[in-house]
Design a protein that fits this description.
With 252 residues, the protein is an alpha/beta fold. It has helices spanning 16-32, 48-56, 81-86, 97-102, 107-119, 132-136, 140-151, 157-160, 181-198, 201-206, 220-224, 241-248; strands at residues 5-9, 38-42, 61-64, 91-94, 123-128, 164-167, 209-212, 231-234. Helix content is 43%, strand content 14%. The structure holds 2-phosphoglycolic acid.
Length: 252
Amino acid sequence: MRKNIVAGNWKMNKTFSEAEELTDQIFLSLEEKSLKCDVIICPPALYLEMTSDYAEESRLKVGAQNVSEHEKGAYTGEISAAMLASIDMEYCIVGHSERRKYFHETNDQLAQKVNRLLDYGIKPIFCVGEVLEEREKNIHFDIVKKQLEESLFHLNKDEFSNVVLAYEPVWAIGTGKTASPEQAQEMHAYIRKMIAEKYDANTADEVSILYGGSCNPGNAKTLFSQNDVDGGLIGGASLKADDFMAIAESFE
Ligand code: PGA
């Protein structure tokens, strides 16, 4: 059975004490609730060790927001997969649209990042998704197909089984515009079909595919009730413990 997952992408938000407070609130809430999903938080790199300490004592899981495609060496400001593994990082977001847009990350480069993470036993949360113009031109399926083919489909079946996918239509990120449940389901089913064709039906059935883009406590239930939507990658609404946990409680 594939896992339901709710992952919070904090992006570049929160000071240390605010991050500690939010982690503490999520930690306490997890103690009280019995949830039908795994809960992952992805704070800025500076707070990974602090949040990992919380995770050790709880069901909470932690992921990084980025990793270098290089193994080690003279890459000022970068963080390697080995470094993340050395603080027991379980997940890492790769291919977020903000990294693609502002840091010009290419599909090739993202493939290297995925490789580095898997070398160190860290599970990539790999983001795919089209921009508005691509959807309007009706080429959104082709865009997502290319992202999967160029960054993930070099993996063998065993390697691929460690990947979590997130479909994030770029026009829905931070805009308050959510994909309709039908639009999300349609793309998630397409992604699963591509995986079945590349690997096999079982691999496709086992991979968790999250939806991301203006997901909130009000729309999470309908989105997560779609057959091929296994949870969410949450930006804005992951910065408030109550909203984030309400989303995590949205599985039927
Ligand atoms: P949002 O961000 O929930 O604020 O739209 C989602 C994401 O970027 O992962």
